[in-house]
Amino acid sequence: MVRKAVTEKFKNLRKAVLTGSRTKFRESFNKLHPRDRAEYLFSQSPTARKKYYGYLPPEEVAELFDNVDIDQSVTYVTEMKTPYAAKILDEMYEDDAVDILSRISPEKAKQYLALMDNETASRLAELLRYDEEHAGSIMTTEFISVREETTASEAIEKVKKEAEDAVTIYYVFVLSDDGKLLNVLSLKELLLADKNTPLGELEHDHIVSVRSNADKEEAAHIMKDYDFVALPVVDFHDRLLGVITIDDIVDFLHEEGADTYSKLAAVSDIEVTDPPLESAKKRLPWLILLLFLGMITATLIGQFEDTIAQVAILGAFIPVVAGTTGNSGTQSLAIVVRGLASGKLKHMQLRRYFMKEAGTAAVTSLVAGLVLLGIIFAWKGELAIGIVAGASLAFSIFVGTLSGSIVPLALKKVGIDPAVASGPLITTICDIISMAIYFGIATVMLGWIA
User: Fold this and answer.
1) Helix (H) or strand (E) holding 182
2) Please, which contacts does 109-114 make with residues 24 or more away whose CB atoms are closer than 8 Å?
3) Strand ranges inside 187-294, DSSP E
4) How far apart are CA 210 and CA 135, in angstroms?
5) Given a cut of 50, is residue 5 above it in pLDDT?
6) Got the DSSP string for 288-357?
7) Backbone angles phi, psi at 183, to 5 degrees
8) Which residue of 12, 96, 163, 325 is surrounded by the most CB atoms within 10 Å?
9) pTM above 0.70?
10) How far apart are the first and last CA of the chain?
11) What are phi and psi of 180, to 5 degrees?
12) Confidence of residue 17 (pLDDT cuts 50, 70, 90)
């Protein structure tokens, strides 16, 4: 029923646009929920959107960007006239504006900053100096802070006064005269405190914060572990620089998850909107690299032509051995990358982890090998072939599983994103391993199976 009502209002908006009535359009548009306003406005064609921008003041459009992901936000801002876009960025929360400005060309960003309020532009320029991977790049300076001599009643009045412009009012940050973070009070603690008590005298637990140059991943783990909705960002002297809010962490985790998934498929820099030639240009380097690695497998198999010629049925089980080994390596890779991303793996000793993974590999390889042996014996009545294929699969899965764990951890050790050990790469490596083991065992046992 709700969606039906929204659809009806969309019809009224279209009618208002067709009749050219700006007043009727604004009346119908402003009755919608902000989420529905954003859905309507940004689902239109670029030409139609530009017309609507003329109907809507920048501060109203700025509100709608809370319902749009960052990549789309960049598209919409850059299609607007520069003065109009600058006013929208001026009205946004600082962390959202920085996200957009950091994704456009420096020249264009300077144009926007030059047209914005000087004080706001100065703060945004300062935030843009932080490395994209650091916590400081996603913080905002729009928080509520008080001095340690401020009483609880005075702090509550300040919250009421600044609530509209603050990105979060769930916490009030107590600072010393030199800006050092002394305490973090929740709104509940503030309301329950004696109204005449200076906030500097209130007891507090250990203050949890993050350095501005820490990885965003570290900030995400802290907010998850402590169930924070905002996290203070400090410098090396514990002076409060800004806060990171939960919505920015959610956006970061969403982007990280999508990026990791794309890297596992070796398509991290490819978008669905890329034209065919550009998309092909981005895919080809990995495909060509994997092609050459695949030639190693082909060359390896070629070395065992005599073995295949004498026992031709061995060729029938190449896809089974290679494919299952590749799958086991990819499974192990995905588990390790997920463990590293979540932070769980760094808390385990590597020796303990490898022992656990070796145990898992031993069980899975043994079971898979016995299953393949049974299938071949039941299907072909070839016990010797079944033993060779089953043993090869068992050894291959064991080695492939450990390879899927070792490769990303080794890359992490040398400072390379472990997700680049993509599924296709691990699969190709496992192909080489499995074929070497398969035909190696078959050649050694050739006299028996021939």
Assistant:
1) strand 181-186
2) 111/82, 111/86, 112/82, 112/85, 112/86, 113/86, 114/86
3) 210-211, 230-234, 240-245
4) 8
5) no
6) HHHHHHHHHHHHHHHTTHHHHHHSGGGGGGHHHHHHHHHHHHHHHHHHHHHHHHHTSGGGS-HHHHHHHH
7) -160, 155
8) 325
9) no
10) 73
11) -75, 140
12) low
The strand pairing partners of 211, in sequence order, are 234
Tens-place pLDDT, residues 81-123: 999 999 999 999 888 899 899 989 889 999 999 999 999 999 9
**What token pair was written down for 102?**
């950091």
| Mean of per-residue pLDDT scores for the chain | 83
295 vs 19 pLDDT, higher one: 295
- Can you read off the two tokens belonging to residue 57? 């003041």
Which pLDDT value is given to residue 266? 55
Task: Write down all domains in the chain, each with its CATH number in brackets.
Answer: 33-129 (1.25.60.10), 145-245 (3.10.580.10), 276-449 (1.10.357.20)
- Range among 6-15, 221-230, 425-434 with highest mean pLDDT value: 221-230
Which tokens belong to 168? Answer: 């979060």
Distance CA 405, CA 439 (A): 24
Q: Is residue 2 pLDDT above 50, yes or no?
A: no
Tokens read off for 140: 């905002």
Q: Are strands 171-175 and 181-186 parallel, antiparallel or unpaired?
A: antiparallel
Exposure b/e, 108-142, CB count within 10 A at least 16 = b: ebeebbebbeeebbebbeebbebeeebbbbbbbbb
Please write the tens of the pLDDT for every residue from 254-273.
777 666 655 555 555 656 55
